[in-house]
Design goal:
The chain is α/β, with parallel strands linked by helices. It is 53% helix and 13% strand. It folds into 2 domains: 162 residues, Rossmann fold (3-Layer(aba) Sandwich); 133 residues, N-(1-d-carboxylethyl)-l-norvaline Dehydrogenase, domain 2 (Orthogonal Bundle), CATH 1.10.1040.10. The chain contains 15 helices and 9 strands. Helix 9 packs across helix 12, helix 9 packs across helix 14 and helix 12 packs antiparallel against helix 13. The chain is elongated, with a radius of gyration of 21 Å.
């Protein structure tokens, strides 16, 4: 795999060193990229600085040295701040720079950033990722990218260093819609499985045996298979929290309403996560929503639920 863009080794400015950003940067460093990093948590900057990344003290400072600027941040508000604020990317990046945002955000917020980047003479790529923190560590994420095709080709070597699969899906906001469509299916699967498992328990089925059979059935998607062992153990340590899923399902519903698409099922799933994430399930894995369904059905947890609930 090449680590150059058009024959020139790029300098990447990376903003956001959370659960996904940190392992991704490590993989870029291993692949030979020059990476300058910024985060509001200076300890995270220091940790990656010790591993070869160059520290930046501000977004503006990071932009001064980077031909490719990448962000992976929590939500629309942070995206708009770091992209469009006075000290942000659009104000300080060089004309001709490429800005890649890999966050899960709304198409509406992404369009605002795209328009501002265009006015500045920058290319803007929306490239949300799919996969767990474990896959991020292994460099096996999936990237959905959309934006100007020539800019995508220039940053594709970077995507190849951090992911196992890359999909270019269009020249505008298609990647945002694809990410939300997939997240709709993911969040809904957790609720559907919670209801199905609770129905089975009410009917006298053994918890582990029921999961074993589901794992051998036609509904055993890669997601379901991935969650079988944690469910067997009632281990709800968060790979992706219920609070995070509430945010994503809210984005799904809002995007559907904006596009004129009825989102009745998505709204039901969002509302269930809204209630659940307002209590002690907020920071548990989103598949722990089975606990809420069980409670509504007047069922106690299975096995060592009390231990699992505090494993965060």
């Amino acid at each position: 795999m090449t680590t150059s863009l058009n024959g020139v080794r790029p300098t990447i400015g990376w903003i956001g060193l959370g659960k996904m950003g940190t392992p991704i940067v490590r993989n870029l460093l291993k692949a030979g990229f020059d990476v300058t990093v910024f985060d509001v948590d200076t300890q995270r900057i220091a940790e990656l600085g010790a591993e070869g990344a160059k520290p930046a003290t501000s977004v503006a400072g990071l932009c001064a040295s980077a031909s490719i600027i990448v962000s992976i941040i929590p939500d629309d508000a942070v995206l708009l701040k770091i992209a469009l604020g006075d000290g942000g990317i659009v104000a300080h990046a060089a004309v001709g720079a490429i800005y890649v945002d890999m966050s899960t955000v709304s198409p509406a917020a992404s369009v605002r950033v795209r328009d501002a980047a265009r006015e500045r003479g920058m290319a803007y790529i929306g490239a949300p990722v799919s996969g767990s923190t474990v896959l991020a560590e292994k460099g096996q994420l999936t990237v959905f990218a959309s934006g100007p095709h020539d800019a995508y080709e220039r940053v594709r070597p970077m995507f190849e260093a951090l992911s196992a699969k890359q999909y270019y899906v269009g020249d505008d906001q298609q990647a945002r819609y694809l990410k939300l469509a997939i997240n709709h299916l993911v969040g809904s699967t957790a609720v559907l499985l919670g209801e199905a498992l609770t129905l089975g328990r009410k009917g006298g089925l053994d918890w582990v045996q029921m999961l074993d059979v589901i794992g051998d059935s036609v509904v055993a998607s890669p997601l379901v298979k991935y969650k079988l062992d944690p469910l067997r153990q009632r281990n709800f340590a968060p790979a992706f929290s219920s609070r995070q899923m509430l945010k994503d399902m809210s984005l799904v519903v809002d995007a559907g309403e904006h596009a004129g698409v009825p989102m009745a099922a998505a709204a039901l799933v969002r509302d269930q996560f809204s209630v659940y994430a307002s209590g002690d399930g907020a920071e548990l894995d989103f598949f722990s929503i089975v606990r809420a369904v069980e409670a509504a059905a007047h069922l106690q947890g299975v096995g060592h639920d009390s231990d699992a609930q505090t494993s965060r």
